[in-house]
Amino acid sequence: MIFKRIAILGAGNLGYSIAKGLVVSGVIDKQNLLLTEKNPKRLEALIEEGFMATENNPEAVKNADLVMLVVKPWQIDEILVDIKDVVDVDSHVLVSYVTGIQSSHIYSALGKQPALFRVMPNTGIAIQESMSCVSAFNHTPEQKEAMKELFSKLGQVLFVPEEQMPAATALAGCGIAFALRFIRAAIQGGVEIGFSAEDAKLIAAQITKGAAELILTNNTHPESEIDKVTTPKGITITGLNEMEHSGFSSSIIKGLLASFNKIEKKE
Known about the structure:
By secondary structure, the protein is of the alpha/beta class. It has twelve helices and eight strands.
């Protein structure tokens, strides 16, 4: 199954990142991708960049077979009311990126039950390096396989039950910001020990990328990779222990739990 025309309702930071990822990965070209945006300045910027863009949500849905909802939670009901009369159960597949909005809420607002996929990606989707967690509803096997293929071109994809979407939001969605904060801290430390900010940024970003690739390529546990670079009375274990004394692992876990608990209250 191939999606010939895609509509992205909401071209903010995430919607724009998704659009870029879809085009760069070759999933679709700009002429068959329609973005909607209410802000006149952003709308004009999208058109100048070569995207097909409009402020008319129903029109966008009518001309698409895959419809992506990429708005803030407080905007979703307005969008659903706007498009419910033009959503066709037989011809439309919906994808919701809206945090905290369950499938039952979407179906209730639409008054119908088209194929629906809830997706939690992160902004790495713009460079085909997202971690996308997906829950599927009222779909055919062909539709599910098509979604797997689509999101595999944008990074890694994992299908999860809907009850795990809050956890997916905290770990996959928020997690990229936590990883970036580590990189920022490493840059600051690198400058303090003598590197220029630019050189420290390169080193910090590359060590993070290399660490992630080791885990993904070797399918190993982080601790086994850590063991390869720690020696008795060595400098690496000394630094790691100092970080742990200061609550390094604990603070990351607490941050994830804080994000998760806030999401749970909204779901």
